[in-house]
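Milestone M4 deliverable, item 7.
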Amino acid sequence: MVRIAILASGSGTNAQALMEHFHADPKIEVALVACDKPGAGVLDRAWAANVPFYLFSGKDLSTGKVQRELESMGINLVVLAGFLRLLPAEFVRAWPDAIVNIHPSLLPKHGGKGMFGTRVHEAVIAAEEKESGITIHMVNERYDEGRVLKQVRCPVLLSDDAVALAARVHALEHAHFPGVVEELATMIADKQ
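Output delivered:
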């Protein structure tokens, strides 16, 4: 059994898509949703899906407490789904080639520290990009610089504002992220 921990900071729509995707999977389970923001919507989504959740602070992450919690639960794959903090180097090294993130632009454009949510879509529109999309990538010790696994594109329309573009990008996230996570989980299972 591959056990997934989802780290999230926000409303949790991607976390929900993942929990739904793996709900009845006999080989892959979302074992934990971990969140660094009290009151974040992702906690309600985990509760509704009957998935255990873990609330932690930035200090818990930097001191290794979160890493120890995930290790004690036998987590094989860490999925960042709207998680806004940079993971400590020790954490990244604890799951080599087993931490994946999704970013709402075509990296390397419009990525890095502080580039999340509406900020990304506003930057894409301000740069007069003709297309945007999603990037699913492995996580390293820097923001949005890990090996790209998949990019999916969508047009940026002349009539777009950040809300309209975000809606199209979210649809791509929900359609493609669970499948890529499943591929990674299958590769991890094959190595066990």
